[in-house]
Amino acid sequence: MRRGERPPVVPPGPTEVDGGTAELLGDADRDGSWVLMVEGTPQSHVDLDNPAHLEFEYVRRMGHVLDLAAPEGQPVDAVHLGGGALTLARYLAVTRPGSRQRVVEVDQRLTDLVRAHLPLPRDARVRVRAADARAGLAALPPASADVVVSDVFAGARTPAHLTTVEYAAEAHRVLRPGGVLAVNVADGPPLRFARGQVATLRAVFAHVCVLAEPGTLRGRRFGNLVAVASDAPLPVAALTRRCAADPMPARVVEGEDLARFVGRAQPVTDAGAVASPEPPPGVFSR
């Protein structure tokens, strides 16, 4: 091996982590790329040769949000709630060098597996704390982050306590003025959960939009919607252009269209929260 080259990844096979069984599978279609599976569900995709490549469509949409959160290349202070294989932390490390990033991941053994076999980019300033996402968020200082990304799953569902007004208010507290929150929302027909999540964010933030593939948005199939929230106006036109140019184009819904999407859905509070719906069998299989 030449000096400076990265040693080849040797996947350890199925490994017991706090959340069940995790496995790293090589991507047969892309050299140097790996998929992290947890309990049979794909949790993350990582391209070690090109960390700026985002394979999962909803993660690509989150990448668009991060790209537009500050002037191109400018470092940001980022908080990632849910770590997985640290895909977006790697992305920011190479697209915004010098960014300071804090990751809250409840599964310490999962983090150990990822860091042992999928090394972070050189000079990445990423700190990972083993904690529940909401507890980790509550421990952060106010106005200390430019972006917060919430992408947390226990198995294939988002825990109930991470779906509420109180949780969104903690993210609002941690964000600086004009900071941006991006939330992965997994739902299917009739999108009752997703509508409630948008209503929840609208109760806390002045501006909200949703990025989603049209079939998912119309309630035709189970999928991932990305909800984006800020107290500053969102770059809707730029997001629309980027989402439309993706391999799987997505729509950006805001304003009156978003109000119609929400309908009569009410904000979710801790007292009435439920976890996100269980995906249909095989929907995330590889």
Automatic annotation (TrEMBL):
Residue intervals of the Methyltransferase type domain: 80-182
GO MF, one example: S-adenosylmethionine-dependent methyltransferase activity
Pfam families linked: Methyltransf_11
Region annotated Disordered, chain positions: 1-20
Keywords: Methyltransferase, Polyamine biosynthesis, Transferase
Keyword field contains Methyltransferase: yes
InterPro entries found in the cross-reference section: Methyltransf_11, SAM-dependent_MTases_sf
GO biological process: methylation; polyamine biosynthetic process
Protein name: Methyltransferase domain-containing protein
